[in-house]
Amino acid sequence: MRRIISFLTLALLALLAAVPAHAERIRDLGSFDGVRPNQLTGYGIVVGLDGTGDDNFEYVTQAMRGVSGRLGLTLPPGVSPGLKNAAAVIITAELPAFAKPGQTIDVTVSTIGRAKSLRGGSLVLAPLYGADGKIYGMAQGNLAVGGLGVSGRDGSKVTVNVPTVGRIADGATVELAVATGFDSEQELRFNLHNADFQTASRVRDAINARYPGSARVIDGVTLAIVMPFGSDLRAEMIAGIEMIEVRPAETPARVIVNARTGTVVINSAVRLAPAAISHGRLVVRIEESPVVIQPAPLSRGQTAVEQSTTITIEQAEDRVALMPGGANLSEVVDALNMLGVGAGDLVVILEALKQAGALQAEMVIL
User: Fold this and answer.
1) Which CATH class is domain 181-246?
2) How far apart are CA 9 and CA 119, in angstroms?
3) Which of 93, 234, 271, 310 could cross-link to 287 by cystine, CB 3.0-4.6 Å?
4) Distance, CA of 229 to CA of 225 (rounded, Å)
5) What are the boundaries of each domain within the chain?
6) pLDDT tens digits, residue range 209-250?
C-alpha cells in the first residue's frame, strides 16, 4: 500500500513539474476576431420624477412632443409645458457577441440636462443605435438609482453618490443580431491582448500540438487558425483551443510613473547596469518671531514691533548606494530604501539612471 501511495505521489509531482510556471489559458491571452461586444447608444425621456427633472429644458419639450405624437396626443402649438417630472437622458448599453433578437441586456441611463435626480423615474420606450446607425435594441423600464440628492429652500443640499445616473437590469430587448462571420469564414483570427512575437509563437505551437497544421502567425498580435466546416465542430475546436495552457513571454522591462500622484511601479523584468547613486537633501527653515517693544514710562514713545528672524540649515547625511550589474527588482528597491528617498525623489533618480544608460527599461510617464 505504501509503495502505491509513494508511486502516486511521485507521479503527481512529475505532473506538477511538467506544467509550465505561470502558464495561462489561451482564452486569457487574447480573443477571436469578431467575438466581441458592440456599444449601443440612444436618446430618451425619463418620466415620473418627483420634481427633480429638467423643467423647461428644450430637449425635454421636444422629446415629450415626440412621445405624445406616438401615443396619438398632439400638444397645441406654442405651448411649452412645465416638465419638472421628466428628464432628457442618454442611454448606453453593450451588445454581447452572438446576442440574438429577443434576448435582454442591461442599460445605463444618464441625464444630459439640469435634472437633479432620476430616483423613482421610468424610461419611456427608446431605440438603441449602433455605430452604423441601425437600431439594435429597444429600451424601457424602471430605473434603479444608487444615489440620493436632498436640497433645502435656503440652498443647502446633500448628495450621496450620483443620483443623476441609473441602471435598468434587462432593460433593453435585442432587435437585430450582429454578423460575426463565425460560421462562414474558413480561417478565424485570434488576437493577443499584448503584442509579442514570442508569445504568438508559443500559442501557435501549443495549438498545432493539439490540432496539427491549423495555426500560423501573421504578426506579433494575430494568428490565423484554419477551422473545420460546421458550427458544431468549430465551437468544439474553439472551446478546446481556449483551454490550452501556454507560458507567455516575459513582459518587457517597464517603469510606470504617475507624475500627478507620485506613484511608481517597477515590474520584475527591470535590470540595472553597474551604477552608483548618491542622494542628499538640504532643508532650510526660516522662522519669524516678532517682538513687541514698549516705550519707557512717561517717555511719550510709541509701541514698536521688532522683527526677529532665525534661519537654520539642515543637510541630510549623504549616502551612496552601489548597484551591481544585473540587479533585480528587489535589489533596486532595497538600495533606494536605504537612501531613504520618497516617491518624488525616486522619480528623479530613475530618470537620471535612464539618462546615464544604467536603467535598462522603458519609462512610461502617466
Assistant:
1) alpha beta
2) 61
3) 310
4) 13
5) 38-174, 181-246, 254-365
6) 999 999 999 998 999 999 888 778 888 898 899 999 999 888
